[in-house]
Structures are given as C-alpha cells and as structure tokens.
Amino acid sequence: MTDRNALADSLIEARRAGSIVTLSDTPSSLDESYAVLDAVMERYGEKIVGWKAAFTNDAAMEKMKTPEPAMGPLFGSWVFHSGESVATPDNCARLIESEYAFTMARDLPARDTAYSEDEVTDAVASLHPAIEIAHSRVDGGFDIGASVLIADHCANFAFAYGDGLSDWRDFDLLGQQVTFSVDGKEIATGTGEAVMGNPVTSLTWLVNKRSSRGGGVSAGQILTTGTCTGMQPVARTCSLVADFGPLGQCRLDCTA
Length: 256
What we know:
Largest sheet: 8 strands, mixed
Radius of gyration: 17 Å
Strand content: 25-35%
Shape: globular
Order of helices and strands: HHEHEEEEHEHHEEEHEEEE
Number of helices: 7
Helix content: 10-25%
CATH superfamily: Fumarylacetoacetase-like, C-terminal domain
Number of domains: 1
Distance between the termini: 38 Å
CATH topology: Fumarylacetoacetate hydrolase, domain 2
C-alpha cells in the first residue's frame, strides 16, 4: 500500500516549490488516491474554501481511466476573483477549464442518505462564471490518470470566479453557449451539457461525494462543477476570458 503521508508530503512540497516529481509508488485504487488526498488536506495547512468536480463526462472518465468523476478541494490562497492575475511556473500544464460554480447558502452536512437535487439546489446562494487552471505536479500525471491526479490535489492549480447570480434557477445552463478566449481570440465553445449532462447533476454528485466521505459542504463554500469547454492549454503569459452570456464573464491573467 502507498505510504499516504510520504506521498502527500512530496505532492505538497512540489506545489509549494512549483516543481514536478517522479513517483515510483502510485496509488493502486481510487480509495488509496483519496486517502492520499485526505492526507494532503490534513497536512498542507491551507484553508479549504470550496470543492471541485473533475472528469465530468464519459470521454474524460475514459481518458482518465476512472469509472466515476472525481472530487477535490479548492485552497483559499489559490482562489481568485475575476480580473486578478495568477503566476504559474514554467512547467505548469496550464490546462484551462470554463466552469459553472455555485456558492452555498447553508450547510449540507454528511448523512447516511443521499441528498436530492432539489435539496442541493435549495441550498445554493448563487451561480458564478468560473475558470480553473488544471495542472499535475506528477511527471506524466495526466497520462497515468485519476489514480494519481486525485491524490495530486485533484489536478487543481488555481481557480477564479466572477460575480454571482442569486436568481439563477431560470438560467439556461444547458443551452447557453460558453465561449473561452485567449488574448482576445476565441479558441473553444461548449455548454453545460458537457458537465454530466447538467451542471446541477454534477453539483449534486459533488455534494453527495463529500457527504459519503464524511465531510459534507458548508455555507459560503464555492463548488465548481467541471469544464464546459474542455481542457485548453495556454501560454505562460496570456489573458483569459470565459464568457457565459447573461451570467457574465470570468477573466484571469496568467503571468510568469
């Protein structure tokens, strides 16, 4: 079995140093992967301000060699507001995802029975346009797949979100075109259907995954549901815009 604390420490140090590690011992199951991620969350010393869902469509799950999506934390010092800048190391994968995110109005604690979609949406305060920068600190992590990426901070580098919409329930999450642009040039489009068929489905899955792992989610936390526009690699220095139509935009500048 993987030494979860030793692996967690090496992944935390790689994150802090902006370095890449080569692993001789990797988790052999998703349970082991989440055990390492638990150790990362315990030992990193960063406040968790939200949660992310990953691999939220069949193609992504197949590519990442997993039968289900994945869940991971958003750490406070790596969460930004729209319009801010984030520095990335030269070795960062900088795979950009345009996502629907939700801020929670109240706690949904862990419990034995699953939360319904109605219960989850009733606990939402607002809907936001968002960008995630995905990255793996493990050499070949995206080729190895979910067993390593889950352990490695669930492949999160940074996250940014724009102003929220509290009256969001009539917003067309499935039909609204999401456009992702780099330095003013449109490079990808998509819709919420790419996210488990509906971002609300992904949100509900994420809440229940947190519940099943004994944690639940808390009021004020932001939950992001997976990419509408695929994973788009970008240069180290660039300006990003994810445009969600009437919901608004999320902007983020990448710097050296």
